[in-house]
Design a protein that fits this description.
By secondary structure, the protein is mainly α. It has 2 domains: about 5-190, no CATH class; about 200-230, no CATH class. The chain contains 9 helices and no strands. The chain has helices at about 5-20, 60-80, 90-100, 105-120, 125-140, 145-160, 170-180, 190-195, 215-230. The radius of gyration is 29 Å and the shape is rod-shaped.
């Protein structure tokens, strides 16, 4: 069965991000650099873990694996749309290359999920799959955590290009927990760890003692004039 899953996935991603834009969700004009990388919870994750995404009641192990892989792809798709403020992240290039490199495995995941929704929901299966796709994209959007999410997604996207064809699900197992954790806001610790610098008081009264004799007399006269004017006020 020939399914244009790339066009379908892209359509739902654009729709989800467009809905967020209508709510006033803005993209920053410039990238911020972390002096210290934020630390996120990481480690392997099971496809049935609720952290992966929406619940799939009655799903088979194969369908759950497709669900895990589809959430990874969806997160990287959102990053490609959301993280273009920094060309150094290369989220668009990485995502487009990922689609080409892992197209067969992603197409299989799409077919497995489509089959799940048809099996569970019958005639309304396609609409339920559409709702699932839209909610999955929305769940990867976070204005407060954008920088951390973009940095994490960019690294995962680049790593995906080094994974052999057919093994992208292994990367999903290894990195989806970290990708989800990066949606929590984090802050640059450098600003909170440093000791404040104490500055000497700034005096607006001129120091005449450092001038030569002639200039010092002139400075002292001007200083006395300033003091008299201040007393009159």
């Amino acid at each position: 069965m020939n399914i244009d899953w790339k066009a379908r996935a892209g359509r739902f991603a654009l729709g989800a991000l467009g809905a967020l834009a209508s709510l006033g969700w803005a993209v920053p004009a410039a990238a911020q650099v972390f002096l210290h990388d934020p630390t996120y919870q990481s480690g392997p994750i099971e496809p049935t873990d609720p952290l992966v995404g929406l619940a799939l009641p009655g799903a088979t192990p194969e369908e759950y694996r497709a669900h895990l892989l589809w959430n990874l792809r969806s997160g990287l798709n959102v990053a490609a749309l959301q993280c273009q403020f920094s060309p150094f992240l290369r989220t668009v290039d990485s995502y487009n290359s990922l689609l080409a490199h892992h197209s067969r495995e992603l197409a299989s995941a799409y077919q497995a999920l489509e089959g799940y929704f048809r099996r569970i929901h019958g005639r309304t299966g396609p609409r339920q799959f559409d709702d699932y796709s839209t909610q999955t994209y929305n769940n990867f959007s976070s204005m407060q955590a954008q920088l951390g999410f973009c940095q994490t997604a960019a690294r995962i996207g680049k790593e995906a290009l080094t994974v052999r064809k057919g093994d992208l699900h292994q990367l999903a197992t290894a990195r989806v927990r970290e990708l989800r954790s990066s949606l929590k806001p984090t802050y640059e610790p450098f600003a909170f760890l440093q000791t404040p610098v104490r500055l000497s008081p700034i005096s607006l009264i001129p120091d005449c003692t450092r001038l030569d004799r002639r200039e010092r007399r002139r400075c002292e006269r001007e200083l006395r004039d300033m003091q008299r004017q201040a007393q009159r006020r």
